[in-house]
Structure formats: C-alpha cells, structure tokens
C-alpha cells in the first residue's frame, strides 16, 4: 500500500492539491500526444506514405482490437491486485511510458521499400505494440482519480485539470506536428520516402517527451485514498458479474463507444477533408487549434457549475447537444471557413463533455465498490479502455470503408490538385465519402450518446454512497 510521508493535514493543503492536480494532469498531455498522432495522422501516413491501402489499414485497425481485449483485461486485473509502496496505479504508468514511446516511433517507421504483405505485417505488429503501451499507461489513469482524493468536488477539479492538459497536448499536436513533419522531411512539398522520414523523426522527438512527462507525473502524485481491501478472493466470472451489475457502468460503456466513434471519426477524416475538399492542408492547424483551445474555458466552466450543484450528467448532455449542432454543420458544408467555425463550436461542446466524462468515471467505480464490497476499478477501466480502442478502430475502419466506397486514389487526387483541377467535378464520389466521414458519422454517434444518458441518476445518489464508503474505510 502507498506509504504516506507526511501528516494527514499536509494532504489537505492547497499547495499539495495543486501539485496533485497538475502532476496528474500532465499525464494526459503525454497520452494525447500519442493518441491523436495515431488517430489523426496514421491512416493518412499508411495510405499516402507507406503505400498501404485504405481497406487493408481499416481491417487491421479492427482485427488488432481483439488482441487489445485480452491485454486490456490482463492489465486491468493486474492493476486491481497491485499493492506496492508506490501505490496501486503509479507503477503501471511508469512501466508503460517507454513501451508507448517505442510504439509511437515504430508505427511511423514502415519500411517503404518492402513488399505490400511485409509492410502490412509491420503495421499489425507495431500497432499492437503501440496499443499495449497505451494500455499500460492509460488503464490506471481513470481509477487513480479515486485514489488521489475521496472528495467528489476535488475529483472534478483533478479530472478537469487532466482534460485541460489533454487539450494542451492536442494543441501541441495541432500546431507542431505538421510543421515538424515537413521540417524533418526537408520540404513542405515532400512526398513518399521523405515525408515518411518526417513522420518517423517527429515521433522520435515526441516519444522522448512522452517518457519524460510520465516520469514527472508518477513522482509528483500520491495515492492518499486507497481502495477498500477485500480479503475475499473472487473469480473472473464473479468479477465480471459484479462489474455488469452496475447499470451506470453499462451506460458508461455505450457512452465511451459512441462518444469516441464520433470524435475520432472526425479526426481521422480531417486531413483528407482539408487536403482534398478545402484544398489547403495548411488551414488544418488553425482548425485543430480552435477545436482544442475553445474546449478549455468550457472545461473550467463545467467544473465551476458542477461545484455549484449542477449535476455532471446534465453538463455532459448539454455539451453533446452543442457538439451535435457543430457536427450537423460539418455534414452539410464543403466550405473551409464554415467547417472551421463548426469545429470551434464542437470544441466548446466537447469541453463540457470531456471534463464531466472523466469526473463521472470515479463515481461509477465507487458505485461498484459500494455494491460488491471490492474495488474493481482496474477491471472496469480495462473494459472501458477496450471500448475506447474499439471506438477508435471503428472510426478508422468506417473512414477507410468510406474511402474505399468513394474510390479514393491518393496519387490521382494529388496530381489533379497540383494541376489546379476541380476535384469536386473529377472525384464527386470521393468528395461525398470524405464529407460524410468528416461530419455525418459524428452527428449520428453524438445523438446516440445523448439518448444513452437519459436514465442516468447517480449524481443524486452519490453523496450517500460516498458516506458509506468512508465508514467502511474507517472500519478497516
């Protein structure tokens, strides 16, 4: 168990709370660098640099998720049974950082001189390595919030700080990845092997940053509220039964899937949209920056409103409605300026959704512990983490399928673009596919996410649940 070095009063001071918030928050800065690299640039890298077809890449994204299902549960179960002087969660975050960084580099290092089958095999193997590294780092990050504080309002502050840093990670990706890629490629007009080298070297730099940040995070935080220790040994089936007795957790799983299918589908199609519909990929960093920056004030506003008594689920649903409006505009427009404004609106809505999502998760984990007398937060995070990855794969696969349906041909479109030809007239089906991938998929997913949360009423019940858990900890 985590060994505390100071008197209990120290852990209630404002200075410690801010150290805890920022120390943990920077972990998602690192994770988002890795996560958005894979979800925003990887499919484009595969089709335009590595020479892997969109269909093969999309199929790979789905197949590798079945391996993730095994590794996610394995890590989650191990986390639930971990008890060290560093605590339950931090050792896993520290061990996963170098694996994640290596995976980042290998993802964007497909040997361009190899044959199609060999390149695809490389893609499978390196995507599995990357996903496993992300699992090691990310699985502990949701349940650790319960260990960082027992106070619901402070958990909201911790989760909000985390999401602010996550968006700063997204902003870093938005502003610097494309310029870094072209810097290392040697030219903004680079293609083929030169552009592939640009992606690889960019990931080497960002991988080093990820490891450094995760080390700072682990040694800046303290698990001051350990989960209830249960002497009762339970089987896999018993644990699964306890997990799925939690109706709020089932709602969370649906929310995870549709929230991320919509958001990541938009990210996966964005580079295609600005390259071939707007015709100016240099406008993409501005759009991504607005999407990221405008989420930060609404994250802070959501935390403030929650502190004033507005339930988390209401704030989550409000943000989803705002996002649905933005996605609806994306679906019906081909104008770059209008699309960028719509992305700004989506950023405002996503600020509400993301901060409340990560604040709701610890409450749902506590509900399971209250019902079954045992903390299964690691297992629950593993399952939701798998759904998150499945959503990521689904988004990439759907975008890939739409590109296949639209007869996407990178070489022909790049040639026509360079010649100044009208892409909408030459490739109308491809344009329709990209436009639908960019907005339509997200709109449908967001509407479903709003509906899923209608029965959620845990916010009303949580104070009594927390009081009972506090009594149990005092008894231990």
TrEMBL record:
GO CC annotations, alphabetized: plasma membrane
GO MF terms held by the record: symporter activity
InterPro entries, per the entry: MFS_2, MFS_trans_sf, Na/Gal_symport
Gene Ontology terms describing biological process: carbohydrate transport; sodium ion transport
CDD domains in the cross-refs: MFS_MelB_like
Source superkingdom: Bacteria
Keywords: Membrane, Transmembrane, Transmembrane helix
Transmembrane segments: 21-38, 44-64, 92-110, 122-151, 163-184, 204-227, 248-270, 282-303, 338-358, 390-408, 433-456
Pfam family, one: MFS_2
SUPFAM superfamilies: MFS general substrate transporter (SSF103473)
Name the UniProt record assigns to this protein: GPH family glycoside/pentoside/hexuronide:cation symporter
């Amino acid at each position: 168990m985590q060994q505390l070095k100071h008197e209990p009063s120290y852990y209630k001071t404002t200075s410690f709370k801010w150290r805890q918030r920022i120390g943990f928050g920077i972990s998602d800065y690192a994770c988002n660098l890795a996560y958005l690299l894979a979800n925003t640039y990887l499919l484009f890298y595969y089709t335009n640099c590595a020479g892997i077809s969109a269909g093969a890449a999309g199929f790979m994204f789905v197949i590798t998720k079945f391996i993730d299902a095994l590794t996610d549960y394995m890590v989650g179960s191990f986390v639930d049974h971990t008890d060290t002087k560093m605590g339950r969660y931090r050792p896993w975050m520290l061990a996963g950082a170098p694996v994640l960084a290596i995976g980042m580099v290998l993802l964007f290092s497909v040997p361009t001189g190899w044959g199609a089958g060999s390149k695809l095999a490389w893609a499978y193997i390196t995507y599995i390595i990357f996903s496993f590294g992300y699992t090691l780092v990310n699985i502990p990050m949701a349940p650790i919030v319960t260990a960082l504080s027992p106070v619901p309002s402070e958990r909201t502050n911790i989760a909000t700080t985390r999401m602010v840093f996550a968006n700063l990670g997204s902003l870093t990706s938005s502003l610097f990845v494309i310029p870094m890629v072209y810097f290392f490629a040697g030219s903004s007009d680079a293609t083929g092997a030169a552009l592939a080298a640009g992606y690889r070297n960019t990931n080497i730099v960002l991988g080093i940053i990820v490891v450094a940040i995760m080390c700072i995070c682990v040694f800046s935080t303290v698990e001051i509220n350990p989960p209830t220790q249960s002497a009762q040994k339970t089987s896999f089936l018993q644990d699964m039964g306890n997990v799925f007795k939690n109706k709020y957790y089932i709602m969370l799983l649906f929310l995870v899937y549709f929230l991320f299918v919509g958001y990541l589908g938009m990210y996966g199609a964005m580079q295609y949209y600005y390259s071939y519909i707007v015709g100016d990929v240099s406008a993409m960093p501005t759009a991504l920056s607005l999407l990221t920056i405008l989420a930060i004030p609404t994250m802070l506003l959501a935390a403030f409103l929650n502190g004033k008594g507005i339930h988390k689920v209401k704030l989550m649903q409000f943000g989803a409605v705002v996002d649905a409006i933005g996605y609806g505009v994306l679906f019906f427009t081909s104008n770059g300026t209008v699309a960028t404004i719509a992305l700004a609106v989506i950023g405002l809505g996503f600020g509400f959704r993301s901060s409340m999502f990560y604040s709701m998760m610890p409450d749902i984990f506590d509900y399971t512990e209250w019902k079954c007398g045992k903390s299964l937060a690691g297992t629950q995070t593993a399952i939701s983490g798998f759904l998150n990855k499945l959503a990521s794969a689904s988004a990439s696969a759907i975008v890939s399928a739409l590109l296949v349906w639209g007869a996407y041909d990178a070489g022909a479109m790049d040639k026509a673009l360079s010649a100044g030809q009208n892409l909408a007239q030459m490739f109308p089906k491809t344009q329709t596919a990209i436009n639908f991938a960019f907005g339509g998929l997200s709109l449908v997913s967001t509407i479903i996410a709003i509906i899923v949360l209608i029965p959620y009423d845990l916010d009303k019940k949580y104070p009594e649940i927390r009081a009972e858990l506090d009594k149990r900890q005092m008894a231990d």
